[in-house]
Every structure is written in C-alpha cells, then in structure tokens.
Write a structure and sequence with these properties.
The chain is α+β, with helices and mostly antiparallel strands and 333 residues long. The chain contains eleven helices and 14 strands. It starts with a strand and ends in a 9-residue tail after the last helix.
Length: 333
C-alpha cells in the first residue's frame, strides 16, 4: 500500500503504463484517531467497457444513463468482495423502466472483474422522463452473491428509497447491512458529435470499526466520518467522468488532508457468458413441436439480452443433434 504525496500530483504522476480507465481503485483514509472507525473505499472508472455495453443496444438516453450508473455502482460494490463468482446488482420497478441489471463476474479472488448489463423498458413510456423516480417508479433494489456450486446463494433486498441510485444503495446498506456508506455515481456521454462516448464512475466510502462490537454513531461530532462525507460531496459528475482526471488525482483532490492511501488498481473488462453451446443446451430442452412453432423464416433466432448477439439454428438441426445426444427421438418423417 502506498500513500499519495503531500503535494498535488503531476500530469505524468501515474506513468505511461499505469491503467487509468476501466479499473477499480481501492483506497483507505487513515486520519482517524485511536478507537475511531477506519474508512475504506473504492472508486470505479469505466470508459470503453461501459461504452461497449451501452452501445450494443439502442437505449434511449435516460435509460442508458441509468444503466451506466447501475454498472458503475455494481462494479464498485463488487470490489468489496473477495471471492470468485457472480455478483449482481439490480433495480426493479413498476415504471417505464422495469429492470436495470449489472452482472459482474469476479475472478482471481476479486482482483479482476468481467462486466455485462442490460435494461428492460417501455420505449413509449420513457419518452420525456428522466431520473430514478420517473423511470423506475416503485420497486426494490437487490444484491446477489453467487459463489457457485456447494455454496449458499446470498440475496439482500430493500425497497427503492431515494431520488438517485446512489441514495437507493445507501438506503440498502443502512437497512440491510447496518453499515455506514457514502456513495456517488455518475454516467454520461463525454466528447462531441461522433466522438462522444459513454463513461461512468462510482465512489464508495465505508466506515468499518476495528472492534466488530463497536457501535458506530453517525452523529458523533468527534468522528472523521462526517468530514469525509462533506469532502466527498464536493466532487462533481464532470470530475468523475473526466478522462483526463485519474482516480488517484480525484481521490487526492477530495481527501488529501485525510491521509488517503491507495492499493494497486484492479482491471475491469466487458464480457458475456452467452455462447452457441449454451443457447443450444436451452433449445434442446424444448418439445419438438415448439422448435418449429418458434421458428421465424425457418430459423430459431435467439438474441442475448446482455450483448445483443443473435444465434440462429435450424429446427431440424437442433432436433437431430438432440436425438444424437439421446435427449429425444429423432423425426423420421
């Protein structure tokens, strides 16, 4: 772990080989006195990863912005976990947007992440609306951790409470985890005209006691927690999305008086777990007559909701391959 310098960082502070985009930057604030809770945090900075996810669909701008925030927030939250598995962050509502979903695969014990995401929405109902309240309406926020076979799947769920996704997530931690957490998240297009690309970022600071039995009191005026939240609130969306402002520089701007220290960044990539074999394994479970009823222009067309990739199969081919695998009787006619 290394500390940031006491003076402002120089333009080449991070070096030519240090990744500055599509990363999670863990950090810690060490200004607390003896007996006070430590403050830890993560900051996500997403460039081409989130642009790739959003550009694969023709989302209306308000929907794409919310999904970008969902992905950045999901990555930021997943970075708190040390496991190999799947972390999902989703918001469901009864409004024009019925689902926002970020799916993060954690690898190498939580040292790198593979991201995908999608949104379900009513295009006509979305028109002219923006923001969490107008688009999601009433619903709930859910976090799921799946570490695979032979482990218990964990899911936490709370009602959507707040005017932003960050406020909804903070409510989740207060209600479900009894944990103090300050969160900021942003997404938007950066650049002009055809060069404009989606970017997203999130930052989260948590208060963790050295003694697990310590009672963390938000109103304790002697605590550094309140000051850290005030400093964090001085950050802006434009700074979070600014590709020229690295995570280290942003954290130093906010918390240089709080003894901010960072650990190595963790890379984030885009990826989807769909494949021709996975789709075929689903189709081979269908009754023979359904294969033909679902065909369009003589083909079964299956499109992945995440990456928008379309897989085409001839019903007869699926039927014969299924029969060869001993899963059904072939059609002899």
């Amino acid at each position: 772990m290394r500390g940031l310098p006491n003076s402002g960082p120089t333009p080449d502070r991070d070096g030519p080989d240090r990744p500055t985009d599509d990363i999670v930057q863990p950090f810690q604030l060490e200004s607390g006195g003896a007996g006070e809770a430590r403050l830890t945090g993560r900051m996500s900075r997403l460039g081409s990863v989130v642009d790739d996810v959003l550009s694969r669909h023709d989302y209306p701008e308000p929907v794409a912005e919310l999904l970008g925030q969902t992905i950045a927030l999901g990555v930021t939250l997943a970075a708190a976990l040390k496991f190999d598995g799947i972390f999902t962050f989703q918001a469901q509502g009864d409004g024009p947007v019925t689902l926002l979903l970020a799916d993060i695969q954690t690898l190498d014990g939580g040292e790198r992440y593979v991201v995908r995401g999608y949104a379900n929405y009513d295009a006509e109902a979305v028109e002219g609306r923006s923001g969490v309240r107008a688009l999601l309406g009433k619903g709930y926020l859910a976090l799921t951790v799946d570490q695979g076979a032979h482990t218990d799947r964990y899911q936490g769920m709370v009602e959507l409470v707040g005017d932003t996704l960050a406020e909804c997530a903070q409510h989740y931690f207060r209600q479900s985890q009894q944990m103090d957490a300050a969160i900021m998240v942003s997404a938007g297009r950066v650049g002009d005209g055809l060069d404009a690309a989606w970017r997203a970022g999130g930052i989260m600071v948590q208060r963790i006691a050295d003694d697990p039995n310590m009672h963390l009191t938000p109103d304790d005026e002697a605590d550094t927690w309140r000051r850290a939240m005030m400093l964090m609130a001085t950050g802006t969306d434009s700074e979070i999305l600014n590709p020229a402002l690295t995570a280290e520089r942003y954290l130093f701007r906010l918390f240089h008086e709080e003894g901010v220290r960072v650990t190595p960044v963790r890379p984030v990539t885009r990826g989807c777990r769909c494949s021709e074999d996975r789709v075929f394994n689903v189709l081979c479970q269908l009754p023979r007559e359904d294969l033909y009823d679902l065909a369009e222009d003589g083909l079964l067309k299956v499109t992945c909701e995440f990456c928008n990739e379309t897989y085409n199969f001839a019903p007869k081919v699926v039927e014969n391959r299924t029969a060869a695998m001993g899963l059904s009787e072939p059609d002899v006619n």
